[in-house]
Amino acid sequence: MSEPLHPSQHQPEQSQLGKTSSYADQYDPSLLFPLPRQPKRDEIGISGQPPFLGADLWTAYELSWLNPRGKPQVAIAHFTVPCESPNIIESKSFKLYLNSFNNSRFDDGQQVLDRLKADLSEAAWRGAERQGSVGVRLLAPAQFAQEQIHELDGLSLDRLDVECTQYQPDPELLRADHEQPPVTETLVSDLLKSNCLVTGQPDWASVRISYTGAPIDQERLLQYLVSFRNHNEFHEQCVERIFMDLWARCKPVKLSVYARYTRRGGLDINPWRSSQPQQPPANIRTARQ
């Protein structure tokens, strides 16, 4: 077992976010900076087992290394970080880590994939009693043409002409009509925006909410999603907050929340949380990503 994370040593403000950074030019897994998930989960009332499953789907568009003869190689990487991992990986540290591959020689793509899988798994489960695994898939240039662009499927909430006045998360906006028969529907919006917890830089996203239960008031749901506009929190934490607010306020029988955030530094992060076991969404980017 690796050394446990001490809360005072792994705070967001101690990461490389918002700081001038020197870029390592040789492979360096020590650059990865894990952050415990639990403190933010405590804030939204999750003290034990969360009422959801899921994963954080990452895409890295700027991955390169040298082959044994020094010729640069490039790839797109897809990562799947299970939400039961005790840590998220701070995104700038992830980028610095990926940059450290740039001038390092590897035998082939499989060796790169193996290093990525081992390093990210160690960071995501650092301090845990058992080690889990991060999924990694590399796409070589010959496969780039297979990458798709597709918007999130569902009924658009953005069609609604609503007045928006709240720009900090307000779960009291959420309402479901439990006098009506249950429905199953999927609702989407491109208007989700939050800010980085440390730097305050804007994070833009599209979100898909699928549920079975009492009909959720769509106008109030859109106002609720807009209320994240000035909120400072990491992507994964915003999606878990949305899930928990809907779960507590609307009491659906089934619920999933999936957000696709636009990329920064060659990385996009796409958290997905579901009350029911199911396959994660396909990691297909939207036009804004």
From TrEMBL:
Binding positions (substrate): 89-91, 235-236
Question: Is Cytoplasm one of the keywords?
Answer: yes
The GO terms describing molecular function are: preQ1 synthase activity
**Pfam families named among the record's database cross-references:** QueF (PF14489), QueF_N (PF14819)
Please list where the region (Disordered) is annotated.
1-29, 270-289
Q: Which UniProt keywords apply?
A: Cytoplasm, NADP, Oxidoreductase, Queuosine biosynthesis
Catalytic activity line of the entry: 7-aminomethyl-7-carbaguanine + 2 NADP(+) = 7-cyano-7-carbaguanine + 2 NADPH + 3 H(+)
List of catalytic residues: 196, 203
- E.C. number: 1.7.1.13
Q: Which InterPro entries match?
A: GTP-CH-I_C/QueF, NADPH_dep_7-cyano-7-deazaG_red, QueF, QueF_N, QueF_type2
Domain (NADPH-dependent 7-cyano-7-deazaguanine reductase N-terminal) ranges: 23-124
**Broad enzyme group:** oxidoreductase
- GO cellular component, as recorded: cytoplasm
> What is annotated about its quaternary structure and interactions?
Homodimer.
Record function comment: Catalyzes the NADPH-dependent reduction of 7-cyano-7-deazaguanine (preQ0) to 7-aminomethyl-7-deazaguanine (preQ1).
What HAMAP family has UniProt attached to this entry?
Answer: QueF_type2
Q: State the family it belongs to.
A: Belongs to the GTP cyclohydrolase I family. QueF type 2 subfamily.
NCBIfam families, per the entry: QueF (TIGR03138)
Q: What is this protein called?
A: NADPH-dependent 7-cyano-7-deazaguanine reductase
Native organism is Malikia granosa
